Amino acid sequence: MAIEEPDSGKSKYFIFLQIILFSGLFIPLFIFNSIGGLDFWWWMSLDISILIIFSLVSDRSYLTILTHELSSGAHWKIIFGMGSAFLLFGIFFLGNEISRWLFSFAGEEISLIYKFKQGASPVRIILLMILLIGPGEEIIWRGYLQRHWENRFGSFAGYLLSAAVYSLVHAFSGNIMLIGAAAVCALFWGGLYLRYRSVLLVAVSHTVWDLLIFIILPLN
Prior knowledge:
Blueprint: H1 12-32, H2 40-58, H3 62-70, H4 74-102, H5 106-114, H6 122-153, H7 155-171, H8 176-196, H9 199-216
């Protein structure tokens, strides 16, 4: 069980800072996809790295929480995380079939999501997913932002608010299927974190799901 601590960001101004920082880094990514010499994957990795540093600096207890995760029931968190990734992939597999049947635009928009991979080495994408993107997104979105907002607004409200912001930044892509996918993921991983209070569990789930959906068994 992870260590819980009082929220260090009680001020409404700190909440605004969190929203501005998270949104300000991710929204341009989904609008432009690349900047200068950075493609989508390098840019996302840079944003995540900045927010990990912000999370650890603004919450000095967070490193202790993350360290404790590795010494407390890590094996079951990894196993459960992997199992939940396959469950989520199954949900997306069914959703892919249903959405293509219901919506004429679904197939094209799903193909556009996979265009994020264009020009990037599959090996680089895999390494970034495993080493930074998968675990990093859970460190900042669920382990940091959702935890703080649960402490500030209450467990369920914090869960929903963090999921809403996660979905909102994807909305600037203009891709309805990506927005829907982001909302499902946010509710799924946020729900896991709400129930089990484990960053490691959701990090494993996110990483394995990324590999399944983008590399191993893509749905395009």
